[in-house]
Design goal:
single chain; alpha+beta; OB fold (Dihydrolipoamide Acetyltransferase, E2P); BirA Bifunctional Protein, domain 2; 2 domains; 8-stranded mixed β-sheet; 5-stranded mixed barrel; 14 helices; about 35% helix
Length: about 500
């Protein structure tokens, strides 16, 4: 059965053939435009301030997003990467060939136009089109309500339609780009060097996560898509670079939620001779600075709340936070069975397979994070939850680690790095026992990293920031897929 959309597509193919029969290439190699739409508007304002009667001829290029064909005069909207401008076509000024081409224009076509700028009687900035060129004939119609595409499935699967149709979607990714640029600027000004580390790694290390596995045929060896940037960046600290950072994609073969995605962007920084207190201060300053640089303010609207990034942020130990929001003091329940029993007594559902560290993590996820709207730093974690962090002096079971939470989202994780190679080996071996017992969220021992530590790594403060979640906060988006251009989706059947 032929649908209405099929008929429209057939009509557009017929128009394409007519254009070609005129000897016109509907997909030329390029177009020499003089201005973007934004630059054209700025030019018009300058001309008006000077009261100039001689208007400059400008050349623009973009997609037709609306057409209003009316008698001898027709109007259209042209949109490019900078904005939108109205076009005016006076048909009696077009020669026969150009007029024929005009009749074959459709919404969605990409054209180049030239002419002079003016304002209509309603003060609308407009280009008086003297001539135009077909740059790409659109064979598919834009969505029926292209100016408000709302179907989530279509928006994610065909992001290009989302970007054409929804100005707010374009703004989200423009903010994302500016935020990443601002982060780079902030770190570069502090003397950090940006580096790149391998995506394919022989050992999945640096985090507790289930990796994606692939096989390298030439080497006949299995590799993992990296689950963290950490271990290679710390190798560079050993090598003598005192301040390094990387903005890179991370891959974790785990569940999907409004806050989790199998591939995401992480910022990791490492600074020699710093500890987690130094990193706390830097994180507060960086997030506040980026927000001000990108949005012009250090506060953002997130859902029904206003989140204030200006330092100082609230700081509270993990023990105090869990006790305050769940009523459980996990230190007084040092075994998994004891903590599980306490949680059940408070009618908290408990997975009998989870160990003590995962039970504490469950308390954090269920009771602490959702309550922390204003930026908060939770610090001093149990050793069993942090195999790469340095022990806090005088406290054998506590490490110098913190997480930063805002808007109920964990946006950063950091610690004073463990640089004792012998202790690091012992912790890796403990993790390996859990992996061999069936826990997928544990890694294999990275022998080369341990060898690097044996050459000596200075005291170091490390930081990881989830870029996607930070952008969620900056753009007031409730789901991580809204800030990832091409999110992973289940295959359509």
């Amino acid at each position: 059965m032929t649908t209405r959309l099929d008929l429209i597509a057939q009509q557009r193919l017929q128009k394409l053939e007519r254009i070609r029969r005129q000897g016109i290439d509907p997909y030329p190699s390029g177009y020499d435009r003089s201005h973007t739409t934004r630059q054209a508007l700025e030019l018009l304002e300058k001309q008006e301030k000077k009261s100039s009667k001689r208007a400059t001829v400008v050349s623009l290029a973009g997609r037709l997003t609306a057409m209003r064909k009316m008698g001898k005069t027709s109007f259209a909207d042209l949109r490019d990467g900078d904005g939108k401008l109205q076009l005016c076509f006076y048909k009696d000024r077009l020669d026969e060939k150009t007029l024929e081409l005009f009749q074959d224009l459709d919404i969605g076509d990409i054209i180049g136009v030239s002419g002079k700028l003016f304002r209509t009687k309603t003060e609308e900035p407009t280009l008086d089109v003297e001539n135009f060129t077909m740059l790409a004939k659109s064979l598919q119609p834009l969505p029926e309500k292209w100016h408000g595409l709302v179907d989530v499935e279509t928006r994610y699967r065909q992001r290009y339609l989302d970007l054409i149709a929804n100005a707010p979607a374009r703004e989200v990714f423009q903010v994302r780009s500016r935020a990443i640029a601002a982060i780079r600027q902030f770190l570069n000004q502090r003397g950090f060097m940006e580096v790149e580390t391998p995506v394919l790694q022989p050992a999945a290390g640096g985090a507790l996560a289930n990796p994606f596995t692939t096989h390298h045929h030439a080497l006949d060896q299995d590799f993992y898509l990296r689950i963290a940037l950490e271990l290679h960046l710390k190798r560079l600290i050993v090598g003598g670079f005192d301040k390094v950072y990387e903005l890179g994609r991370i891959f974790r073969n785990e569940g999907v939620s409004t806050q989790h995605h199998p591939e995401f962007t992480m910022l990791e920084t490492y600074e020699a001779y710093a500890d987690y207190n130094d990193v706390m201060a830097m994180l507060e300053e960086m997030v506040s600075s980026v927000s001000h640089e990108v949005l012009g303010a250090t506060k953002v609207q997130f859902g029904e709340d206003t989140v204030h990034f200006k330092p100082p942020w609230r700081r509270i130990t993990l023990r105090e936070a869990v006790k305050e929001y769940s009523g459980i003091d996990f230190v007084t329940h040092p075994t998994a069975d004891g903590l599980r029993e306490k949680m059940r007594s408070l009618k908290i559902e408990v997975d009998p397979q989870k160990n003590w560290a995962k039970l504490v993590d469950e308390l954090i996820k269920s009771f602490v994070r959702p309550k922390l709207i204003q930026p908060t730093i939770i610090f001093d974690y149990p050793l069993s939850m942090s195999p790469l962090a340095k022990t806090k002096p005088g406290e054998e079971r506590v490490v110098e680690r913190f997480q930063a939470i805002a808007g109920g989202l964990e946006i950063a994780n950091a610690y004073t790095e463990l640089n004792d190679p012998l202790e690091q080996r012992e912790r890796f071996e403990e993790q390996l026992k859990d992996r061999q017992a069936g826990d997928e969220e544990r890694w294999s021992i990275d022998e080369d990293y341990l060898t690097a530590l044996e050459y000596g790594m200075p005291p170091t403060g490390g930081l990881g920031v989830g870029i996607d979640r930070l952008v969620m906060l900056l753009t007031n988006q409730p789901a991580i897929r809204e800030v990832i251009l091409f999110p992973q989706l289940r295959e359509r059947k």
